[in-house]
Design goal:
alpha+beta, Phosphorylase Kinase, domain 1, 40% helix, Nucleoside Triphosphate Pyrophosphohydrolase, 450 residues, Aminoglycoside 3'-phosphotransferase, Chain: A, domain 2, globular, 5-stranded antiparallel β-sheet, 6-stranded mixed β-sheet
């Protein structure tokens, strides 16, 4: 779980910045005694990234976030950092003070106990990175940093229980990324290692795997996120690379399943039609907005029948099911000098390949407002890569059905993720929107694959 916050426009954080050498905490003086520094940051932000930058800019020191403690009634958020640069850089208005000498009202009782546990290396419930000195252990494990006299420039983007994302830049300006994953994304490590071995040119190059941390160090990828590229050549190269990876992977899916790839095959989607459409009917009945009409029971019945036929057609088309990147948009494809590079494979699925291509095209459409001719050209570019697997009629049928079933699969995956949670209705807006899109796409005329 990451540390992204949501709430009012700005939130206040109490900063617990620990100097591991002296085992003291950064404080500011007051007439009442030593106080913790405060920092206000925008809400709905990555706390680790925002706070480490604010601390460096305002207080003059470099830190790394170890833990984010939930807010206590009457107090602001408490965030624990470790000093990773010289303490002398701190502003002259600040000093380092023993934990017991800080004014007692600066902490809730349980917060003080947690901070002490972190300082002793005993806060196991907060994950493997809620301890002093772990960054030194990382550098000692990592080729290229081991034995260096100076610490690289570290920029932390995110932190959570057993999760961390940061960049490291050495004196030669060589930049690498460290990523560690915890629940519910522990499978990302094994999947990334498997994909990196199979497709070294299509993933960031791995410098170091640290399996005991579910972590790895990878080279930085120079280039432009695909959703920011205005070059159609980059878009077409990406769909071609995706098809190539999928075709190669279709020959052996067992290792992907073993690494944690999720089953979203056509057969799995078919098996969920009854419970899904039962909840879809309820979601439509509970719609309160009048901006767009809810689908009627008759429309849902037609949709269920049409989707079932479409899934059967995709299954028998001759095009094999294979790996899907479940989060292929949102900047997770980089147009680089060595070609497209695909990032963040936490959501690796097995399913019909055309669904993944449709999600990539939809992301490009959100970013660039593709014209109908641009969309059609991308779909045809991708479909042409599968000519050896299906005849012209089958390929045309698949190309026509893919936009609808991609939208439907998106709805089912969101529904499945929420239906066992306390508030399954949180998925209903997505479900309603995607089903309306599924219906529109199924009503489109047959695509022609020349």
């Amino acid at each position: 779980m990451t540390d992204r916050l949501n709430g009012s426009e700005r939130i206040e954080c109490r900063l617990v910045v620990i100097d591991a050498q002296s085992m003291k905490i950064l404080t500011t003086a007051s007439t009442a005694g030593p106080l913790l520094p405060r920092e206000k940051i925008p809400a709905y932000t990555r706390v680790a990234e925002t706070l480490t930058k604010s601390i460096e800019d305002r207080l003059g020191i470099s830190t790394i976030q170890l833990a984010f403690l939930s807010g206590t009634e009457g107090l602001s958020y408490c965030v624990v950092h470790e000093l990773i640069g010289p303490r002398e850089a701190a502003s002259g208005l600040l000093e380092f003070t023993a934990l017991d000498d800080i004014i007692s009202t600066e902490f809730a009782v349980e917060e003080r106990a947690i901070v002490l546990a972190i300082m002793k290396g005993e806060a196991k419930e907060l994950g493997r990175f809620a301890r002093l000195g772990w960054i030194d252990d990382l550098l000692a494990k990592t080729d290229g940093y081991r034995g260096q006299s100076s610490m690289p420039i570290i920029r932390q983007l995110n932190q959570g229980i057993d999760f961390c994302l940061l960049s490291m830049t050495d004196l030669a300006r060589c930049k690498t990324w460290f990523k560690a994953v915890g629940e519910p994304n522990t499978r990302e490590h094994a999947l990334t290692m498997e994909l990196a071995v199979r497709f070294p040119d299509r993933l960031p190059r791995i410098r170091q795997s640290i399996p005991q941390w579910n972590a790895w160090v990878m080279e930085d990828v120079q280039g432009t996120p695909l959703n920011q590229s205005i070059n159609p050549g980059d878009w077409h190269e990406a769909v071609a690379a995706l098809a190539s990876m999928q075709q190669i992977s279709s020959n052996d899916l067992s290792s992907f399943y073993a690494a944690g790839a999720q089953d979203w095959t056509c057969g799995r989607l078919q098996s969920l039609l009854e419970p899904f459409f039962a909840d879809a009917a309820l979601a439509m009945r509970m719609q309160t907005s009048s901006k767009v009409a809810a689908l009627t029971e008759a429309e849902l019945d037609w949709l269920k029948m049409s989707v079932e036929v479409a899934l059967s057609d995709l299954t028998t088309s001759g095009i094999p099911e294979t790996i899907l990147h479940g989060d292929v948009g949102h900047g997770n494809v980089i147009a680089s000098p060595r070609g497209p590079v695909f990032l963040d494979w936490a959501e690796t699925h097995v399913g019909h390949p055309f669904l993944c291509a449709e999600h990539l095209i939809a992301d490009l459409d959100r970013s660039h407002r593709l014209t109908p001719s641009e969309t059609r050209a991308l779909r045809l570019s991708y479909a042409e890569r599968w000519r050896d697997y299906a005849g012209p009629d089958e390929l045309a049928r698949v190309a026509t059905l893919a936009p609808a079933i991609a939208a439907f699969a998106y709805a089912v995956i969101a529904w499945e993720a929420h239906r066992s949670r306390p508030e399954p209705s949180l998925a209903w807006p997505t479900l309603r929107s995607m089903l309306r899109r599924t219906k529109r796409e199924l009503e489109q005329p047959m695509e022609v694959v020349a």
